[in-house]
Design goal:
7 helices; transferase
Length: 204
């Protein structure tokens, strides 16, 4: 069971009205909204592919934009943590190295996901008509679904623990919620793309 009193005490350290904290929340929420809206628009209109001359070039452009936005998000996240107090009881070697280990695991999931999917597979290539031959089932997809998202969440969790930051923990929860919504939004649409592909193959 969740200790509500402990949670209230923990988040009593967080000033949710702080400008830096609000900016971090907005950047976290904006990123998946941006790439889903743009990717669906591309899937419907092929406008980016026409502008950049090919689906691959357009996908690489979107991927670059997502990487820049993720760097901005991480910067905002870090600045929000720095502007708010640490939890003194957690400001110790044990918490720091626990956070470091969690971040390392998260990094492993993110990097291995990228290597398994490739650039276009990672950055919504299927919305550009760049479809994979078959579903990836190797590590880390053999361990959990959407390892890129949950690996990224783990990195933020570890980063928050390393800084003994209640604000970081709350922002990590926002990251997890935003990714959960993104998965619910992306999953069925992506499955439909591949269902249509299989239907088209069968009809040939």
């Amino acid at each position: 069971q969740v200790d509500v009193a402990a949670m209230v005490q923990l988040f009593g350290y967080v000033d949710v009205t702080d400008t830096g904290f609000i900016v971090a929340v907005l950047s976290i929420a904006f990123n998946p909204l941006f790439w889903n809206v743009v990717a669906r628009w591309e899937h419907k209109t092929r406008a980016l592919s026409q502008v950049f001359g090919s689906p691959h070039a357009a996908c690489y452009c979107l991927g670059a934009a997502i990487l820049v936005l993720n760097c901005v998000r991480s910067h905002c996240f870090t600045e929000a943590m720095k502007s708010q107090p640490k939890l003194e009881g957690w400001d110790c070697h044990w918490t720091y190295y626990s956070g470091l280990a969690i971040s390392a695991v998260g990094t492993l999931f993110v990097v291995s996901s990228f290597l398994a999917l490739g650039f276009t597979g990672t950055f919504l290539g299927d919305y550009f008509g760049i479809l994979m031959e078959e579903k990836v089932t190797s590590f880390p997809f053999s361990v959990l679904d959407n390892p890129m998202y949950w690996g990224s969440t783990a990195i933020y969790l570890g980063w928050s623990l390393m800084h003994a930051s209640p604000a970081g923990l709350l922002l990590t929860a926002v990251v997890a919620i935003s990714y959960t919504i993104a998965v619910l939004y992306e999953g069925p649409f992506t499955e439909e793309i591949y269902r249509r592909k299989q239907k088209g193959v069968k009809n040939k």
